[in-house]
Specification:
Elements lengths: L4 E6 L6 H7 L2 E3 L2 E4 L2 E3 L6 H8 L5 E4 L3 H13 L3 E6 L7 H9 L5 E5 L5 H15 L4 H11 L3 E7 L3 H5 L5 H9 L2 E7 L4 E8 L1 H16 L4 E8 L3 H15 L8 E3 L2 H7 L4 E7 L1
Parallel strand pairs: 1-2, 1-6, 6-7, 11-12
Antiparallel strand pairs: 3-4, 3-5, 8-9, 8-13, 9-10, 11-13
InterPro entries: DegV, DegV_C, DegV_domain_contain
Protein name: EDD domain protein, DegV family
Organism: Gemella haemolysans ATCC 10379
Length: about 280
């Protein structure tokens, strides 16, 4: 008998409403707070959030309460389903640990730390759904996804350092000096933390540095997918698209270029770009 399996993913995945319906997944929302008012992906758009962030005096993000996961797990296990849960990287949020804690009360719930965020999670979601269509055992799918997560590169270019100060990752004096010197930061999401790979002056230098790091990581592997979620960073996106095509012969689909979730832009600030690269 074919197993009944429900896939649950958190809202940092940047799924559109059409995709949520198409893939028939449940979405557990992370929340954002702007000047004391709470929102999630259903109540404020990604573009509107960045515009509001420009004039807001305070903004922050919160992981889902454990009750959100317990409620979802109860619903689907009571209907005879096994569950696969995809969360953003545990290096960025406590969402994974919360889901694991909630799952301890249930049988047949498999929680995957995707080691990435935004569309990197969708790369894994599509692989998960493909294997479900092929009737692969759910335990095997869970292990396969954990392995495939190792082949997704997650970079973020930071244009302005202000939000890193607000998040406690940089001092005000460092940000002031960085701004005066036109310093840009390239970061990469590693196994346990977001690492600053390089600090350079100017946009073009930042993009060239990004391409260098992708080349080093790629080695003999093939690029399967690239996504460029961004915080209203059209100029950066155009530069990155051009360099990716020139260096790797890869043309990024317009469907994979969009304004990213507030869960990410809160911490990166405006004009940042996420570069998600799936290798095979």
């Amino acid at each position: 008998m074919v197993e009944k399996v429900k896939v649950i993913i958190d809202s940092s995945s940047d799924l559109t409403f059409d995709e949520i319906e198409k893939y028939n997944v449940d979405v557990i929302p992370l929340t954002i707070n702007i000047d004391g008012t709470e929102y999630d992906y259903r109540t404020i758009s990604n573009d509107e959030y960045i515009e509001r962030m420009r004039t807001a005096t305070s903004y922050s993000t919160s992981q889902p309460a454990i009750g959100k996961f317990i409620e979802a797990f109860e619903k689907w296990t009571n209907e005879g389903y096994k569950i696969i849960v995809l969360t953003l990287s545990s290096a960025l949020s406590g969402t994974y640990n919360t889901a694991v804690t909630a799952s301890s009360e249930f049988e047949g719930v498999y929680v995957i730390d995707t080691k990435t965020t935004t569309r990197g999670m969708v790369f894994l979601l599509k692989e998960c759904l493909k294997q479900l269509d092929e009737n692969v055992d759910v335990e095997v799918i869970a292990e396969n996804l954990r392995e495939k997560a190792k082949n997704i590169l997650t970079y973020v270019t930071i244009d302005k350092l202000d939000n890193l100060v607000k998040g406690g990752r940089l001092s005000k004096s460092q940000a002031l000096i960085g701004g005066l010197l036109n310093i840009k930061v390239l970061t990469q999401l590693k196994e346990t933390e977001l690492v600053a790979l390089d600090k350079v002056r100017g946009k073009k230098k930042l993009v060239h540095t990004l391409i260098k790091y992708i080349e080093e990581e790629k080695q003999n592997r093939t690029i399967k997918n690239i996504s460029l979620p961004n915080a209203l960073a059209d100029e950066y996106v155009d530069l990155i698209k051009s360099e990716l095509k020139e260096t790797f012969g890869y043309e990024v689909s317009e469907d994979e270029i969009f304004t990213t979730t507030p869960i990410i832009s809160t911490h990166t600030g405006e004009n940042a770009v996420g570069i998600l690269v799936e290798l095979v």
